[in-house]
């Protein structure tokens, strides 16, 4: 389960303060998928980063899979991510020095993943990038890098998946593949927070959250009813 209680995030730049999120509260029950939408700059990536423990809230509480993320030290947050909270970054964050396969295998250096190489190769094949396993990110297209980043996130079968625009660079066919994969993770019990501008029809999210200038401007259940 993911829960935000009155979460605010301010970035300070010299004398200027940017309020990226203001008093955001919501919850995503275990095994549900929430779709997070909002204009560019509305705070989506900030929210994902806070949820992953990659940044700290200025105020409020964040609970992810039973972990009080807002109150945890950096090392505890890193352990939480390694043990079951995966992030698909908007800008991929693949290691430029490793091949696609090595990047996908990275989580298995930190936690035990049974048959890691077979699982990595299977994910890569499902995502249609088998022909690039020996390539480094600089030798791959943005869409290929994006699919590698997703394969890496899914390698250790995370319980919570935070996916920031995982279809942003993909054609319709690859985007469908990615969304189908997230759907099967949900069917297997994962809790998912998905940032996307155009996924509502294909993924049938359990709930939709809309951010407007850092505030939650709307929350809807699957049937369109307000939450
Ligand atoms: N490190 C930072 N320092 C100062 N301001 C920041 C920082 N990171 C983000 N912001 C500001 O916070 C706001 C929210 O940014 P965020 O990246 O969360 O938006 P977003 O909804 O993910 O946008 P996009 O759809 O373009 O990815 C923006 O106005 C941005 O300029
Ligand atoms: Mg973003």
Report on this model:
The protein has helices at residues 44-51, 74-82, 100-105, 116-126, 142-154, 172-187, 200-203, and strands spanning 2-13, 16-28, 33-38, 59-64, 67-68, 85-88, 160-164, 191-195, 207-212, 215-221. The protein starts with a strand and ends in a 6-residue tail after the last strand. It has 227 residues and is of the alpha/beta class. The chain is 30% helix and 29% strand. The protein has a six-stranded mixed β-sheet with strand order 6-7-8-3-9-10, sandwiched between helices. Strands 2-1-4-5 form a four-stranded antiparallel β-sheet, with helices on one face. The chain binds adenosine-5'-triphosphate and magnesium ion. The site of adenosine-5'-triphosphate has 13 residues, from β1, β2 and α1.
In short:
30% of the residues lie in helices and 29% in strands.
- What's the name of the CATH homologous superfamily? P-loop containing nucleotide triphosphate hydrolases
Bound molecules: adenosine-5'-triphosphate, magnesium ion
Low-confidence stretches: none
Mean pLDDT: 94
Task: Write down the CATH topology.
Answer: Rossmann fold
Order of helices and strands: EEEHEEHEHHHEHEHEE
CATH architectural designation: 3-Layer(aba) Sandwich
């Amino acid at each position: 389960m993911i829960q935000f209680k009155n979460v605010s995030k301010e970035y300070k730049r010299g004398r200027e303060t940017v309020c990226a999120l203001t008093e955001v509260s919501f919850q995503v029950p275990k095994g549900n998928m929430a779709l997070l939408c909002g204009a560019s700059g509305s705070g989506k990536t900030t929210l994902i980063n806070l949820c992953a423990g990659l940044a700290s809230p200025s105020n409020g509480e964040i609970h992810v899979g039973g972990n009080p993320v807002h109150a945890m030290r950096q090392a505890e947050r890193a352990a939480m991510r390694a043990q079951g909270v995966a992030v698909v970054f908007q800008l991929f964050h693949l290691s430029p020095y490793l091949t696609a396969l090595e990047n996908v295998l990275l989580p298995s250096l930190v936690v035990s993943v049974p048959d890691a190489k077979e699982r990595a190769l299977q994910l890569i094949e499902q995502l249609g990038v088998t022909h690039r396993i020996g390539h480094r990110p600089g030798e791959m297209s943005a869409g290929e890098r994006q699919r590698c980043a997703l394969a890496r996130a899914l390698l250790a079968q995370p319980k919570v998946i935070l996916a920031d625009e995982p279809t942003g660079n993909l054609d319709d066919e690859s985007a469908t593949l990615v969304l189908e994969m997230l759907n099967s993770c949900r069917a297997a019990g994962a809790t998912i927070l998905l940032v996307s501008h155009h996924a509502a029809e294909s993924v049938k999210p359990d709930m939709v959250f809309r951010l407007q200038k850092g505030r939650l401007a709307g929350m809807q259940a699957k049937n369109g009813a307000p939450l």
